Please model this.
Amino acid sequence: QVQLVESGGGLVQAGGSLRLSCTASESSLTSYWMYWVRHAPGKSREWVSTISPGPGSIKRYGDSVKGRFTISRDNVKNMVYLDIDALRPDDTGTYYCAGDSKFLNFPEDSSFWGQGTLVRVSS
Model:
């Protein structure tokens, strides 16, 4: 079982930026599709972004984050990142990193998850 660990969340002002990181200490993430999913208070989980295995040449974004979020991976460091720019109060939530050996239309079905990192955006 792959155990993911996210970091990088915090309290930021609207308009600011953050970099969220995701890694696994005992497993290589290189061969997995990786996903970011967020959960805002009082709302359902929302898919944010997807990156393909290997070099990560395929990247996808949810409509609400396109143009502001950038997903990337560094396979040497065994890291997956989510760079967030132009933060808005409605970006507030817990951000989860998830992974699976397959591409998933519903990343909520991912095989393994991290514990989440909290992002709070003040207006």
About this structure: The first strand starts at residue 4 and ends at 7. The mean pLDDT is 96.
